[in-house]
Design brief:
alpha/beta, Rossmann fold, 6-stranded mixed beta sheet, 4-stranded antiparallel beta sheet, 9 helices, 12 strands
Length: 256
Amino acid sequence: MKLAFDSLDLTLRGREILKTVSGQFQPGKVTVILGANGAGKSSLLSCLAGLREPQGGSVTLDNQPLFSLDNRERGRLIGLLPQRPDIHWNVDVKTIVGLGRLPHSGRWGMSDADHQAVARAMVATDCADLADRKAMRLSGGEQGRVLLARVLAGEPRWLLADEPLASLDPAHQFDVLERLKTYARAGQGVIVVLHDLTQAARFADDVIVLKEGNVLAAGPREQAMTAETMGEAYGVEIQMGTSATGEPLVVPVRRL
């Protein structure tokens, strides 16, 4: 189930955010969207999730216009973890995670399959031990894991995450990225906005680089994420290398 966008134009408050951009995403891969602040990353993700309709162009899912789907069907196919998500209800964690099953639940409430999906999601995000705690009393990192579990509980065909590493300690950052990669390897599609260039280099299969609302580069990570492209996108000199264990390192050196 391919997710694609074609000739997207988006203007917000008189400012061009996306400028006739096109691209596509393949299931089974982790695609990372990169770019400086204001490049259009979150806006593109909102369009792909069906939350914001562009003024021009189209978003298609398996060649079907995304905005022709009703909200419930779209919710079953695409799950979004937004930037800086908030928890506004002081209910227990398992209730928050259970909200991810709303597009699937029948009129009589959650089924056994729904409860099993919630349990799997909490285990996958290391928050099963938080199930009975009040969500608003958790730390920011714990809340981040709970909200990712809510998205995973919906078992979407496409999982979109906007800066999912915010507020997480390094160990849980690796856990989340590994979980997203596992989700992609199971045949689903994963699209992630990241600011950490080294993490992007380590976990991305494909990369889309945005600059001022345009696609600067797109393709397999090794081709799209070069020092030259990163330097142009961020306005800094970039050095790329490998760690002692052979993992990629991407280091900003100085402002250009």
